[in-house]
Amino acid sequence: MRTEPGVVPISIDVGHVLRRSAESLYSHLVTRPTGRAVRLAIEQQVAGSSRTALSLIDLSDVTVMDFSCADEIVAKLLMRFLEEDRPVDALFIFRGVRQSLHEPIQTVLERQELLAVAQGSDGCCSLMGTRTEEEEYAWTVLEGRGRIGAAEVFEVFPGSHHREALHELVLRRVAFASPGDDMYHALSALVGKESA
Fold it and tell me: Are the C-beta atoms of 90 and 46 separated by less than 8 Å?
């Protein structure tokens, strides 16, 4: 797995966490207490990182997720690591978001006005949740390029509204600006296609 200096990859298999946390043999996330138990287990694992954690949350083994679990595992997890007093810096990619999981996740993200990166089985990433047209455009360009240096930003985004959107994507934690090297990174570039 290729990562940038200062970013630590953490792979978390939600199906495995579910079986361990909820002592369930099923890959169904259908009660808020189950979702909370899984989220707390994920938070504990992520909080152990001493550097920025790139957390790969694998939902591939989850067959059913209701809205309360989507709220606990996706929305509340993202909100916790957007807070000023977050335990560590963390970025998230949600893998294996099959069609049956898409609606509950999209709904809770929209309700909380959150944004998340989802990665399909083909390794391609997309955005879920609420975003402006400018954010969508800036994210798509960054995703296509992988990285954009600070010196290139004015060339790539001649309009100030797109540069502001790029900065907003970093604040919303769906893009990464590495301290010290003036580089914007797509989260998929931090993971590398070979790990998909």
Answer: yes
The reply to whether 1 falls in a domain is: no
Q: Of the candidates 143, 147, 97, 104, which has an alpha carbon nearest to the alpha carbon of residue 118?
A: 97
- Cα→Cα distances 91→13, 25, 116, 155, 160, Å: 16, 29, 9, 27, 25
Domain carrying residue 101: 7-195
pTM of the model: 0.89
The Cα 15–Cα 128 span in angstroms is 21
Bridge partners (DSSP) of residue 149 are 183
pLDDT band at 195 (very low <50, low <70, confident <90, very high): very low
pLDDT at residue 50, as a whole number: 83
Amino acid 93 reads I
Report yes or no on 14 lying in a domain.
yes
What number is the average pLDDT over the span 32-53?
Answer: 90
58 domain residue, yes or no: yes
- CATH of residue 29's domain is 1.10.10.10
> Which H or E run includes 165?
helix 160-171
